[in-house]
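[09:14] KT: can someone run the structure on this one? pasting the chain below
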Amino acid sequence: MSTAAPPMPAEVDVFQRRAFIVGGGGFLVSLIGALVDPTQFFHSYLFAFLFWNGLALGCLSVLMIQHLTGGRWGLAIRRMLEAGTRTLPLLVVLFLPVVAGLGRIYPWVGHGQADAAMREAVEKKHLYLNVPFFLARAAFYFGVWYVLQLLLNRWSLESDQGMDLRRARRLRSVSGPGLVLMGLTITFMSVDWAMSLDPRWFSTIYGMLFMTGQALSALSFCIVVVSRLAVERPLSVVASADTIHDLGKLMLAFVMVWAYISFSQFLIIWSGNLPEEIPWYLRRFTGGWRFVGLFLVVFHFALPFLLLLSRGLKRRPRALGLLAAAMLAVRVVDLFWIVRPEFFHRGLDLHWLGLTLPIAIGGVWLGVFAWQLKSRPLVPLGEPEVQEMLAEAHA
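[09:31] RB: done, structure tokens below
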């Protein structure tokens, strides 16, 4: 049977053009904000960058989980995950404005105007919190992520010519240590890029919260893409009702893990009631932030949990896709709740740059994602299970 790849749906081309247009327009509008209020621009830019960078990292983590565990659920989304990982070179470029705005973002950069408690905390951690070491660590993180995605994408593409045991073993042998490296780099990344916004605060499970959120974002994004393209062959053969059901169950698992880690962090810090830890939550329980926290409890856990218990919903691509799209939007709110209060300590503060910059970076990221998705077949045609399913459908 021929494994020639069918043409990519025209919908992907249309989406790519629209994404680039929206992203370019978002950047043009955001540049006005950069001229009017540079500090606010860099604050909002960090939040937007963390979300889209986390989406790419989540794709890389879930991809390695799929190679280690196997299963038909991964065959339907593998090409989406791989396309997401190949956006990492773009994210290196998008990280440059963060570098340019270090002094306006992080209080440990040029902390001469900080209060006494902040200066004391920064001085105790100056061997770690300094600009050269910060940039060196960032270069290391991007280097590790790029090498991992390069190996996984190269060997996966070679497998389209015919799967063999050596390639399968190589993919698994990289994915095992790769997940360990992802855990370490994402943990230190979250400390560097988010936790250090308040050098006095710390949490031992902060990195786990980021990892789980990124994986949930990546899985939700892939479910949205599959739900849109599920009628296209050969994806329609692989993305069966059983496969969609498996993706829904995995999404439910990540929702539960996120809730467990979030509640564990809150319970440990709140019960400890230590002066260096509790202010992080106090800032998020004052003003309008308390309603954002309640929103997350309901829409990031309670409602998705109840909906994903339904077997019928998990077997319908469109219904699951709508829920996954809503989950992506809630993930943006969750990251905003984590990052924004570190910049403004007097209640809920909204700024229009907090909307335009995620749209700007997201438009460009999605355009590159669509471009990468078009470069390969929608499913890994060299996988024996895919060939069997295609043969059955043809028969």
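[09:33] KT: thanks! The chain has a mean pLDDT of 91.
[09:34] RB: yep, looked fine to me
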